[in-house]
């Protein structure tokens, strides 16, 4: 029987890519979206159902989880993300979901770690204690976040801004995360495993700027900004203060070189090398 896989956060940076790649497999993909309108562009993908999900509404969760075999558990970065994750795991238990793939974050297992890592570790525990077979994926920062948060300033000014100094980061392409999700969902070899996912190299943001410049044929510069300036910019864009402070802590970890580790996990699971930043820059050059 064709299995049904629910992907929560399906319109997000990683969720959308997971839905797209799973749609090419012989499964039914149920894309959980906060707004049906935002999910409209996924309707044309083969084997994809769109379902509206309110993480805080048990009624909408019950409908979304009906006849679901496997769950890709993605929650947004928000002040009530722990409650959201708990609600999703509880509904998965009630409805007899038989496998959960949890998208966590690199560093979630570190002690004492940073606040973002501690939040993710707490959500991992909900999954581990559910009694449902699971795999936890801990990806590094996403290359595509440069498109989401910096493409406008790169287009307008040829610059992007972060308070990370010369720290190197092993960013990963979301297409490689989705490829790993696909592999672990369609095999039973990964139950109970925790995988740390990175790109093939750790680069400084200056080096990334140079690669973006090569891809676009224009001068692109990275500007290291003071933490206070970055904080004020996030607050100005209505980022809740606890979230803004947690993101700043992540940037400080980048600056200190604590996110430079590189793993071979993408290669080991998919049989393919993860995409380099150079490849990402070439593929997304029109965004910059």
From TrEMBL:
Transmembrane segments: none annotated. Residues 2-255 form the NmrA-like domain. This is NAD(P)-dependent oxidoreductase. It comes from Pontibacter amylolyticus.
